[in-house]
Write a structure and sequence with these properties.
- The protein is α/β, with parallel strands linked by helices.
- The protein has a single domain (11-160), classed as Roll (CBS-domain), CATH 3.10.580.
- The chain contains 8 helices and 6 strands.
- The protein has helices spanning 18-21, 34-44, 64-71, 74-77, 80-85, 88-98, 120-130, 150-160, and strands at residues 27-29, 48-52, 58-63, 113-115, 134-138, 144-149.
- The strands form 2 sheets. The chain has a 3-stranded mixed sheet. The protein has a 3-stranded mixed sheet with strand order 4-5-6.
- The chain is globular and about 50 Å long.
């Protein structure tokens, strides 16, 4: 096996696995409001939150784009011409209008998930196919225990290409 920073001989020589690479999830319960989601995102400096049911099992995820889509009126989301005539007061009004919407009304439910036993290849495929940028890591009871981002997957690919410091 070659040292860190040098291209390995085989795919199995990567010294990292999902457990080594994942970040701790920032978890919120079902029923959390849009305003509370944003407060948590700002406080934790994250663009994505993991949502759990009352029993702690995985329910879905919410990211900054989900929040923005919930705030914008439907008629503005895809109408580039109408957007040119809207002012910032409209954004403020719409944010107030949806501040108390529960997370389950705008979160993503079809979110890619893996377990600690999953391969990094599976995680990479899910990241590219699902396009969410975050993959939730679940335990055997479907409780979130971590999050893999494109950054972690990128670092593994960089390691395989022999880029020094990729997994530091």
């Amino acid at each position: 096996m070659q040292e860190k920073g040098n291209a390995p001989a085989t795919h199995n020589s990567c010294p990292a696995c999902i457990e080594d690479l994942m970040r701790p999830p920032v978890i919120i319960p079902i029923g959390t409001t849009l305003k509370e989601c944003l407060e948590r995102m700002v406080k934790e400096k994250r663009n994505s939150l993991t949502v759990v049911n009352q029993d702690g099992t995985f329910a879905g995820a919410v990211n900054a784009v989900d929040v923005i889509r919930e705030v914008l009126p439907d008629y503005l989301e895809e109408d580039v011409i109408a957007v040119r005539f809207a002012d910032d007061a409209l954004l403020a009004q719409d944010a107030q209008r949806v501040a108390d919407h529960p997370v389950e009304s705008f979160m993503a439910r079809d979110v890619p998930t893996v377990t600690l036993e999953s391969s990094l290849v599976e995680a990479a495929v899910l990241a590219s196919v699902k396009g969410r940028g975050r993959i939730t890591v679940l335990d055997d009871h479907r409780r979130p225990i971590g999050v893999l981002t494109r950054t972690e997957i990128k670092r593994v690919i960089a390691f395989y290409l022999g880029i020094p410091g990729a997994l530091d």
